[in-house]
């Protein structure tokens, strides 16, 4: 199939230079101009204008751009899905995951998939759950693994694969180590290490803290879970972290995990995919891994 006219439109919107578009596509500049004029003739409307040496899209061009992006993403998805039927089982699979699943669940899944599809190219994108959902909706990802969100998108299929628990984590040198069962007052006026604001974990933690009226002497924010774990090891600070994320540190005696007082924080982890996505052999193999 020939999608080059739509590719020209998308690249013009990005670079605003015919010469740059020609370079990106590996074709000559007159060929790019031909496809621009051909697309305008086909639709009977002006899509491109030149202003100050830059080529820009007209308002109808911007409307077409919206659909061109969708069409090209669907094309890429279709190519990935159909490529799996070649005799050599080649192809690609694009997976997205929020931090905890990408670090602590995906490695075993990838090993299982590569066993049956050794020539399959697999890419993993790590982003917050909300970003993964949007990328799945936009057909930029074949599937995702996310931590639970309060509202499920109707355009997404959700399959629960794991229930995660969050608890209090601190160093073995922290005075709290002597408390097998924590009370709310044990947490008050401590230095607390928070997750980044885009983290779904942070939203759950903030909701729990507000409900239980737990306040800290000071709060430190770190963007990386690994950074949080390392700083807890060397201080008497505390944090609320996924139990799955600290399993190895607990085994090695580097960190201590305690259940939260009053009520636990539990969240589901889901495999997600676009409801319009065809379940290819690779997709089915992916689901079998859970």
UniProtKB/TrEMBL annotation:
Enumerate the UniProt keywords alphabetically.
DNA-binding, Transcription, Transcription regulation
Transmembrane stretches, start-end: none
Locate the HTH lysR-type domain: which residues? 1-58
Reply yes or no: does the keyword Transcription regulation apply: yes
Question: Which InterPro entries is this protein grouped with?
Answer: LysR_HTH_N, LysR_subst-bd, WH-like_DNA-bd_sf, WH_DNA-bd_sf
Gene3D superfamilies attached here?
3.40.190.290, Winged helix-like DNA-binding domain superfamily/Winged helix DNA-binding domain
Q: Which PANTHER family match?
A: HTH-TYPE TRANSCRIPTIONAL REGULATOR, HTH-TYPE TRANSCRIPTIONAL REGULATOR CYSL
Family listed: Belongs to the LysR transcriptional regulatory family.
List the protein's name. Answer: LysR substrate-binding domain-containing protein
* Native source organism of the sequence: Clostridium neuense
Its lineage opens with: Bacteria, Bacillati, Bacillota, Clostridia, Eubacteriales
């Amino acid at each position: 199939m020939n999608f080059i006219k739509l590719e020209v439109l998308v690249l013009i919107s990005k670079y605003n230079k015919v010469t740059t578009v020609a370079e990106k596509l590996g074709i000559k500049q007159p060929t790019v101009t031909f496809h621009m004029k051909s697309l305008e003739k086909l639709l009977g409307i002006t899509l491109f204008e030149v202003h100050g040496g830059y080529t820009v899209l007209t308002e109808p061009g911007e409307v077409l751009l919206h659909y061109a992006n969708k069409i090209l993403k669907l094309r890429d998805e279709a190519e990935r899905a159909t490529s799996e039927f070649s005799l050599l089982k080649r192809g690609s699979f694009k997976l997205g995951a929020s931090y905890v699943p990408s670090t602590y669940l995906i490695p075993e899944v990838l090993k299982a998939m590569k066993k049956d599809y050794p020539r399959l190219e697999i890419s993993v994108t790590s982003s917050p759950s909300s970003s993964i959902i949007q990328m799945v909706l936009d057909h930029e990802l074949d599937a995702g693994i996310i931590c639970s969100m309060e509202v499920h998108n109707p355009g997404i299929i959700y399959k629960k694969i794991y229930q995660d628990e969050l608890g209090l984590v601190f160093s073995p040198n922290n005075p709290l180590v002597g408390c097998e069962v924590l009370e709310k007052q044990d947490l008050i006026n401590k230095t607390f290490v928070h997750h980044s604001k885009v983290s779904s974990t942070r939203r759950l933690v903030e909701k729990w803290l507000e409900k239980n009226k737990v306040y800290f002497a000071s709060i430190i924010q770190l963007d990386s879970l690994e950074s949080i774990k390392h700083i807890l090891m060397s201080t008497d600070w505390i944090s609320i972290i996924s139990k799955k994320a600290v399993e190895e540190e607990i085994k090695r005696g580097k960190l201590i995990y305690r259940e939260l007082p009053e009520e636990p924080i539990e969240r589901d982890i889901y495999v997600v995919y676009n409801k319009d996505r065809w379940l290819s052999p690779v997709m089915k193999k992916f689901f079998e891994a859970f």
